[in-house]
Amino acid sequence: MAKSSTGQFDRALLGAAVKDSFRKLHPRAEMRNPVMFVCWVGALITSVLFGIDLIKGVFPEFEFQISLWLWFTVLFANFAEAVAEGRGKAQAESLKKGRTQLMARLLENNKERLASATTLKKGDIVICETNDIIPSDGEVIEGIASVDESAITGESAPVIRESGGDRSAVTGGTRVISDRIIIRITAEPGSTFIDKMIALIEGAKRQKTPNEIALSIVLAGLTIIFLLAVATLKFFADYSGTAANQDLSGIVTVPVLIALLVCLIPTTIGGLLSAIGIAGIDRLVKQNVIAKSGRSVEAAGDIDVLLLDKTGTITLGNRMASEFIPAPMITEQHLAEVAQLASLSDETPEGRSIVVLAKEKYGFRAESLTPSQGKFIPFTAVSRMSGVDIFEDDGQVMMSVRKGDAEAIKIMVENEGGEFPIEVVGTVNRIARHGGTPLVVADGKDVFGVIHLKDMVKGGIKERFAELRRMGIKTIMITGDNPLTAAAIAAEAGVDDFIAQATPEAKLERIREEQRAGHLVAMTGDGTNDAPALAQADVGVAMNTGTQAAREAGNMVDLDSNPTKLIQIVEIGKQLLMTRGALTTFSIANDVAKYFAILPAMFGTLYATSGSTGGPLLAMNIMHLHSPESAILSAVIFNALIIITLIPLALRGVSYRAESAAKLLRRNLFIYGLGGVIAPFVGIKAIDVMIVAAKLVK
Amino acid sequence: MSTNDILQILAYVIALIVLAPILGQFMARVFTGKPHLLSRPLGWLERITYRLCGIPANHEMSWRQYAASLLWFNGLGFLIVFILQITQHWLPMNPQHLPNVPWVLSFNTAVSFMTNTNWQSYAGETTLSYLTQMAGLTVQNFVSAATGIAVFLALTRGILRKTTSVIGNFWVDMTRSIVYVLLPLSVILGVALLSQGVVQTLSPAVTVTTVEGQSQDIPLGPAASQVAIKQLGTNGGGYFNANSAHPLENPTPVSNFLEMLALLLIPAALTFTYGKMVSNRKHGWIIFAVMFSLWFGGLALSLYGEYSSNPSVGLNTNLEGKEIRFGTVNSVLWSVSTTAASNGSVNAMHSSLSPIAGGVAMFNIMLGEIIFGGVGAGMYGILLHVLLTVFLAGLMVGRTPEYLGKKIEAREIQMTILGILIPNAVILLGAGVACVLPIALSSLANQGPHGLSEILYAFSSAAGNNGSAFAGLNANTDFYNIVLGIAMLIGRFAVILPCLVIAGSLASKKVSPPSAGTFATDNSTFAVLLIGVITIVGALTFLPALGLGPIIEHFLMIAGRIF
Amino acid sequence: MKTLLTALKFIMLMTVLTGIAYPLLITGVGRLFFVRQAEGSLIIDGGKILGSELIAQKFTDPRYFWPRPSAVDYNPQPSGGSNLGPTSASLKDSIMVRRSRFAAADGAPVPADLLCASGSGLDPHISPEAARYQLDRVASARQLDKAQRTALLSLIDKYTEAPTIGILGQSRVNVLWLNLALDSLGRR
Q: Where are the alpha helices (DSSP H) in A388-446?
């Protein structure tokens, strides 16, 4: 679904969002956000005052405009939230569509009957055949099938699901493409994976995350401070009016004070806070990652230790032949030729890489053997070698080429009465020392040499890890390899540390150890035996191809099953927090200019001597705003419009670069701190010029 | 400004920067229980205190126990000072036969000294007996300062420790602060002041016949001992009404220099103690640098204000309320320092300062007494601002905020906001209400914007536990005695208690080691950010009020207006 | 309850330590080493206390140098300043009164310290300029001849205290000492 995601500002989506922003005007909805609630109350009071004046028969244009813009401020904030939610909703809709009126073939007492998918309980057994949609989350208990999971992953290539092992979990809403499987349902109605996903995306069950709560406290605190500052300003103004023998009641009015209050309280961040949070989860969804809670997204930003599986994440996943090292008296070309022969029928990636290497180096054509000419001897754990026997036309064995583990080949050669050359032993040891896998090639008692199989580190991964290091994140590679091999790959990939011969227990212990040292750990996993570690990690990303246990244990699921995704997840987490911080700073920095607009408007005439036009505080009107009314209105309008202006930023998140904290901070301070001070001066002045030109105010 | 002015400022700054780190290191040893210079000569005093009071020195307390001890102790302290005042006429050591102090004033004064505010609604020489001054006020000068240090130590331990519930022993912290720091320094300073002419006697006032034949009472009393601790403990409650402007309390430029130095010495030194205790000396220096910069900025502004002429009353040099032996520069150095630190003693009358210098003094207090601040109080006050800064900065670097390895979460932020918010709320609300109450307005001695400044200053001083005043305001009325008394109580304990909660909460947390992604608190970026947060939060809160008080008064003064 | 008891014992002990023992210790040091300072730096001449050198006395006789204006009329019980603000009309009035009171015959501007009330109301000093400014008045009131005037001028110089170690504080003249010296000069 994410693949077909709509653009940021889809027309229908916006329409729905506009409707929603009015629906959200309900006081109970507003009360969830103290900052906007104060704004809402302010809008209400000014409207009531306006109404009273209207009844009295006067039309106070200025009050009308202020109350109008205060309502806009509230609506814009609602709109931001609605847009963010709307984007998720659209995604959830498409998921829901497929689920309605789905029937399941329920197996009861060996009899099949049709039942509505929504009635399925945990433990029910259902049958799915080709083209059936799997009715609910479950575990394959019998059979094997290829399943199209594109409904949830967006990935069109089908995946194999079979009973037992790590590929037994199926997800409701996916479609069986071939074969027949019997599934035991593992989810209660309404709590299936898809249900959870829909709930999450819709934001229905969205709870404030810990950091969001902390930030809300800061914002509420600031709001209270400004509330007091503005409320007491009325008293200070009364005192000053008396002291100056002036009547300020024409300008220090309740609507003006409310306008000042709304301008000062952090409405920008207050209005965008929930949108930022929703958008963060949404960005994860775009990356095809489902976070089970907003909390884990936040935690992702704090991760400072990444546990990465070697295979598939750091290396290409398979060892590849990288060189041919011939035995004494043998040419490299000859070795390559024999090695290629030994691998012609070997369909394993290692085997193919030998063929490819021989072709690349010596241009040998890989001619396939006909079954009559040779017999492929596959690798077994007992023989620890593979190869091919080639027959003469008369059925006599012409060659018996083997490649395999050095020890096994040595025994074979010596059994045949041959000698295992000491130089080859040296080569084997050297390769092993450097983390490679030596494959010795022999024909009967003749040893031809060694193929160096090497783990190929993914291109660009080293740079990626360097980037992570700059971000302050330590990478730990997990591998089943022996320490020697592991160390070599670790060095080549540029990870900071590794766990060799890793067992699930070792992983878990390492996570605990890092956590004890105060680190926050993220890891990926797919197997059932990864479940404890996934649960223990602060951010556990389960591969969607993994087992149900793994998916339950992790707090995120990667639908693409791409272990490198962890890096993007960390970035999204950081971006989420940064966006909050940046907009908070921006919001507070804005207040400086607003004071410069509103205070001179309110007190510009205070203590003015008779005859002169202005008092001392008129000097604060450094923007040279047209009139008190235009100044106040411009500030209020700016305050409302800035919310709308920043919605795209809130949804997109501020740009994140892998830099040290100090650099990031300086950059963000510059843009959002200094920018936050300057921007409103420009904006308010521009609005002032416009509304004066449009004759909206005196 | 003359070269001599600059030299005096330099001498002061150098003395401070040289002495503060030395004292800071010493205090770090004292408070962590390591052997130090005075453990041999004074150790017996510490041990005898524990024995006599039944204090188990190695038993540590949870934040609740710590807070309970602190509150009981302060409550008793209040009670003693209160009772001493309302019964002083019947008690010994009252050579002037001063009557019992009315209970409302006693309440105000007792609260004032217990909270380290030392706001003075009374005139010392005509209100309080020698016994009240010694056994009441001088004692509170010591213990209220020590209380500040104790809270600071508790908070520091909270930051420092991991996964524990205890944050130290209140009695031990108090004892060590008094025995090894406050008392020895007071003895040294007391003797030094004595040598300069600060009186110290139990003899009654001396009546003299002046050269022109009038009768004049020269007040006496145990002043030197009290003045020493009032400066060192950032108390500020003068022995005499004119405080350190009084020639018998601050007779010479030398005594003035020493008193000014004492005023900032311990608060400044505590930044280094802190750096040492959290094993991040650079962070200590950064905090010092932030405080120093804010102090210096205020000084520069004030000097500008004081060296401007005053067309309103027709003065080129404003010496109203100043003493000639100190001159403008020492008066301004003092006014900035005493309001930066939560001291509140004065050597010139703040009410008569230029609007800018008076405004700076007021703003210093409004910021929450964190520019050096009160002994201990300045540190825990600025740490609240550090937490707020770290919270914002942490977000901006994409991590949930942490400080010295401790995650700053909702609980800490809640308490931080309370600690910053409540004193500000008290200032605004109190001043706001007083501005329209006739009973409050009748105390004003000045009209126009200066009247507003007087009220604002009074509530800032009370809520900020400063104690200095725009003394044109007659604060010895039932209204102000009660309301300001309550403001002092809130201003003190609404900061202390959140700090202790934070200490308890942080102590129970794990410590995350720093990495390149951690936001560092020991570089100039942090310093700039901290200054920004402090000034912006302060300015945004108080700009409207200040605008109608000192700021507008400044412009009106330039325009030559009078009220 | 145990906490309360500890608190009670602790406050009692501290009262004895810091409220009794410590002030008495300083008082003792004063008795031993700084008797004059501890007792108010009194000027005693032949058993008669003339005043404290640190407390300004009221002088209105034109034959004496006058100290700075005092908001408490030089009565130390209690001390204090005017506390008038920079835009105070009363302050402006006071300054005008003081200006005319001090104004010299030649119309030279009155030094600022003579126009402004001191902080304590008891400031024992005036600036050397303020002393010299009053010289004419004192000299004519005392009908001093030229030589005596010069002697008086050098008397001012004699009683001018320079900043400590050349840095701390301001140059100042102790009015009481100067006036006492003036009287003895007249007697001679």
A: 406-415, 422-433
Q: Do A231 and B431 touch (CB under 8 A)?
A: no
- The candidate with the shortest Cα–Cα distance to A211, out of C18, B394, B135, B159, is B394
CA separation for the pair A136, A127 (Å, rounded): 11
**pTM (two decimals):** 0.88
**Residue whose pair of structure tokens reads 């008795």 in the numeric block:** C31
| B401/B509 Cα distance (integer angstroms) | 14
**What pLDDT does residue A2 have?**
37
Contact flag A620-B547 (C-beta cutoff 8 Å): yes
- DSSP-derived 3-state class of residue A524: strand
Distance from CA of B435 to the nearest CA of A (A): 6
DSSP E strands, B73-178: none
Task: Say if CB C170 and CB B325 are below 8 A apart.
Answer: yes
> Which residue among B222, B248, B448 places its CB closest to the CB of C27?
B222
Which residues have CB under 8 Å from B528's CB, separation 6+?
none
Chain B residue nearest residue A659, CA to CA: B517
* Peptide bond connecting B184 to the previous residue in cis, omega within 30 degrees of 0: no
Q: What pLDDT digit, counting tens, does each position of A577-633 carry?
A: 999 999 999 999 999 999 999 999 999 999 988 777 788 999 889 999 999 999 999
- Residue A400: beta bridge partners? A389
In the set A132, A282, A309, A538, the catalytic residue is A309
CB contact under 8 A, A239 and B399: no
Torsion, Cα A263 A269 A272 A274, to 10 degrees, reads -130
- Residue pair B215/C183 in contact by the 8 Å Cβ criterion: no
Residue-wise burial string across C26-47, b where 16 or more C-beta atoms lie within 10 A, e elsewhere: bbebbeeebeebbbbbbbeeee
Residue scoring higher pLDDT (A322 or B322): B322
Q: Residues of C numbered 139-168 whose beta carbons fall under 8 angstroms of chain B's beta carbons: which are they? A: 163-164, 167-168
Answer whether B38's CB lies under 8 Å from B180's CB: yes
Gap between the Cα atoms of A107 and A113, Å rounded: 7
Q: Calculate the dihedral angle through the C-alpha atoms of B384, B388, B394, B397, rounding to the nearest 10 degrees.
A: -140
Distances in Å between the Cα of A109 and the Cα atoms of A106, A124, A126, A143, A470 are: 10, 11, 12, 19, 61
What is the Cα–Cα distance from A576 to A564, expressed in whole angstroms? Answer: 20
Chain segment A269-287, per-residue pLDDT in tens: 999 998 898 888 888 878 8
Q: How far apart are the C-alpha atoms of A265 and B477, rounded to whole Å?
A: 37
- Which chains, if any, share at least 3 CB pairs under 8 A with chain C? B
Name which of A512-516, C66-70, C135-139 the model is least confident about.
Answer: A512-516
Residue C100, chain B, CB below 8 Å: the answer is: no
E strand or H helix at C59:
none
Task: Average the pLDDT over each of A247-261, A516-530, B335-349, B414-428 and give the range with the smallest value.
Answer: A516-530
CA A427 to CA A395: how far, in whole Å?
A: 35
Residues 6+ apart with CB under 8 A from A388: A341, A342, A344, A345, A369, A374, A375, A376, A377, A399, A401
Does the annotation mark A309 as catalytic?
Answer: yes
Closest partner residue to B73 (CB to CB) among C10, C51, C89 is C10
Give φ, ψ of A33 to 5 degrees: -125, 100
Strand partners, A439: A451
